[in-house]
Amino acid sequence: MDEPIMDLHSDDHFMGEALRQALKAYEAEEVPVGAVVVREGRIIARAFNQVELLKDATAHAEMLVITAAEEAVGDWRLNDCTLYVTKEPCPMCAGAIVHVRFGRVVFGASDAKGGAAGSALNLLQFPGLNHQCDITHGVREKECRELLLTFFAEQRAKNKNAKLTSPHGEN
């Protein structure tokens, strides 16, 4: 089998695959975050946010893709894998990312309020933990951010319309 050719555009390519997953979340009316795990230049797992679908607060794209990647590898250690995710991981996901020992994390849109990969805090490179991940941020950031902004604008409009059409103007 030929070795995959990795170049400077590989991050763009794999983030595109994560964006496809985020669109699945968007279509399911979930917060549009998608993730893929790459090992040896190939995608081994894909997932998107399914919090509402599964009625599970932990069903973030990162958590679901970690489980799928562990199954694909046959081990919980993912140190030779790269995680691509459209939004900066939250503290819950960052904890799991450190625990499974991803070698590298690549994300699109940063999250100033809740991002745990360098924005609000940086659990992925916290000195006291047993593992630190390499981080690449801002890959296809504009596309990732626009998808999130569009989703939340639509949610606000739906909520506003629901309040306007309720019998007493309240929810």
Please give a structural write-up.
It is globular and about 50 Å long. By secondary structure, it is an alpha/beta fold. It is built from five helices and five strands, in the order αββααβαββα. The chain has helices spanning 10-27, 51-54, 61-73, 91-100, 141-165; strands spanning 34-39, 42-48, 81-87, 104-109, 134-137. Strands 2-1-3-4-5 form a five-stranded mixed beta sheet. α1 (10-27) runs parallel beside α5.
Blueprint of the fold:
Elements (H helix, E strand, L loop, with lengths): L9 H18 L6 E6 L2 E7 L2 H4 L6 H13 L7 E7 L3 H10 L3 E6 L24 E4 L3 H25 L6
Parallel strand pairs: 3-4, 4-5
Antiparallel strand pairs: 1-2, 1-3
Helix pairs in contact: 1-5
List keywords for this structure.
171 residues; five-stranded mixed sheet; 41% helix; 18% strand
What is the element string, with H for helices and E for strands? HEEHHEHEEH
Strand order of the largest sheet: 2-1-3-4-5
Count of β-strands: 5
Instruction: Name the shape in a single word.
Output: globular
How many individual helices?
5
Strand content: 15-25%
Output mean pLDDT: 92
Structural class: alpha/beta
Condensed summary:
By secondary structure, the chain is of the alpha/beta class. The protein is built from five helices and five strands; from the N terminus they run H-E-E-H-H-E-H-E-E-H.
